[in-house]
Design brief:
By secondary structure, the protein is of the alpha/beta class. A 6-stranded mixed sheet has the order 4-5-15-10-11-14, with helices on both faces. A 5-stranded parallel sheet has the order 9-6-7-8-16, sandwiched between helices.
């Protein structure tokens, strides 16, 4: 079955999967969504025997239907290889009836590697399929992890350039060091004076800027995105939820066809939307638990039906979730609005103009798959210490938010269905917060001293991604205001 992609904001626009991957954002400012979500062939015993690469092929060919099987195999084989430090690509670790899905075994030790390892290959394949000869300029805003993972994926890829904007002072020391030491002749990293929402909103405006598009076209270039607004980011994220279920069946933790719950630490809503799409495709999931930090705009939305970004922006120890405008929520809004692009467009315009939108009661019924709650900074630190002291297992700050919210969900509902919790980053990426939660007396040590302490505490090897940045030279020092992002792009591209 051929799956076409529509914009969330226009009834007329329809493109193939490869065209949606190439464009990133729809020309009308909307997000591409599959016209229909295919059903996964529910042979869970077969799934349980598959490798990660085999599962990726089975899931992705259902959604990226204009790619040939050979093309997808080639993309998958090039993406999921020795860049990952375990042969199975991801794994599950059990503590007290909760299975942490470790998504951080890639080159940049965060879950973004799971999709950004394959996106460059999907994109260059799409360019060839569609006869595109323009240089593809990847334009990306990051709250900490996407930027590094995208740069690692696209560095020195022929026919591409990548420019990443991150909030200066709004990411961890390790996250910033990973970005500003990134090598690659086609790579540019820029700090902005502002927060992630400022960067993300500016990137969306640039994508919709007709004058900029003409300027780019005249120079033989075109924009695309590595953020989860690109459907080529979202589809690979669906894969690991199916793979996790297969592993639970394989290990006898659930019976084939039994339901599970999934908890996801959530900022831009892409990772949990992938879990939602997996459920819509037939994965046996009862509840999707949306875990937020103190920037709890999503929690309030699930509780009230009102999305209101007019609030203080809080810098937390889980910076990848420090977001007040969750872009991927638009795809869910489109679905619960009965796939009505006019309703979706009106709500998104309200968010831009007033910072608020409210959904109808009938749309609220579409949120029944979700539960939302949040963890405070103190609860996050307490959860890191609790999991370590009880189970000897070390989790990062984002995973700790999810872990605490998972326990709140179970206490609130009495539902103890087997739970998969997305573990989205290595604790080494947030060593200061993690170590100081477990050993508060060590807070005076430097960041790299704390990394060595974490090695002693966890007994796990310091990842290569961390060792590489200890002495790596800083290559990127540019900082601009959000209002000057367009000018910086033009300057760097020389157009």
């Amino acid at each position: 079955m051929q799956i076409m992609y529509r914009s969330t904001r226009s009834p007329e626009l329809k493109v193939t999967a490869s065209q949606a991957v190439l464009q990133g954002l729809a020309p009308d400012g909307g997000l591409f969504v599959p016209e229909k979500l295919p059903r996964y062939p529910q042979d869970w015993e077969v799934l349980s025997a598959q490798s990660y690469q085999e599962t990726a092929l089975q899931v992705m060919r259902l959604l990226l239907t204009d790619y040939t099987e050979e093309e997808l195999r080639n993309c998958i084989d090039r993406a999921y290889d020795s860049k990952f430090d375990i042969p199975q690509i991801t794994c599950l670790k059990e503590t007290d009836g909760v299975w942490y899905l470790e998504l951080f075994h890639g080159a940049t030790i965060a879950f973004k590697d799971m999709a950004l390892s394959i996106l460059p290959h999907l994109m260059t394949t799409a360019a060839a399929k569609n006869g595109v000869t323009d240089e593809i300029v990847i334009l990306t805003a990051t709250s900490g992890d996407t930027g590094k993972a995208a740069m690692a994926g696209f560095a020195d890829v022929p026919g591409t350039r990548i420019i990443v904007f991150y909030p200066k002072g709004g990411v961890s020391a390790v996250q910033e060091r990973q970005m500003v030491t990134q090598r690659g002749a086609n790579v540019h990293v820029v700090g902005i004076n502002g927060n992630f929402d400022d960067a993300q909103s500016a990137v969306k405006r640039i994508f919709s800027d007709e004058q900029m598009k003409k300027q780019m076209a005249g120079a033989g270039k075109r924009f695309s995105s590595a953020n989860s607004i690109n459907i080529g980011r979202l589809v690979p994220q669906i894969v690991y939820y199916f793979y996790a279920y297969g592993q639970l069946v394989k290990d006898g933790k659930v019976k084939a066809g039994d339901v599970i719950n999934i908890t996801v630490p959530t900022g831009n809503f892409g990772n949990i939307l992938a879990a939602y799409y997996a459920k819509q495709m037939g994965l046996p999931v009862r509840k999707l638990v949306c875990a937020s930090n103190e920037n709890k705009v999503l929690v309030d939305f699930f509780r009230t039906g009102a999305y209101d970004r007019n609030r203080s922006f809080i810098l937390t120890s889980s910076p990848s979730m420090d977001i007040l405008i969750s872009s991927n929520l638009e795809r869910l809004i489109y679905q619960i609005a009965g796939e009505d692009p006019q309703v979706t467009k009106k709500l998104m315009e309200s968010l831009i103009s007033s910072g608020v939108y409210c959904i109808t009661d009938s749309m609220k019924d579409g949120l029944k798959d979700f539960y939302g709650n949040y963890a405070t900074e103190s609860e996050t630190a307490e959860e890191i210490a609790r999991v370590y002291n009880t189970f000897g297992y070390v989790i990062d700050t984002h995973t700790a938010v999810a872990s605490r919210v998972c326990r709140k969900y179970q206490a609130d509902t009495g539902d103890h269905t087997p739970m998969v919790t997305a573990s989205t980053a290595s604790p080494y990426k947030f060593a200061r917060s993690v170590v100081c939660a477990i050993r508060p007396e060590l807070q005076t040590k430097t960041d790299f001293e704390l990394i060595d302490e974490l090695y002693e505490i966890s007994g796990t090897a310091v990842p290569k991604a961390i060792e590489d940045i200890r002495s790596a030279p800083i290559l990127h020092r540019t900082v601009v205001d959000a209002a000057d992002m367009s000018a910086e792009i033009i300057r760097w591209l020389g157009i």
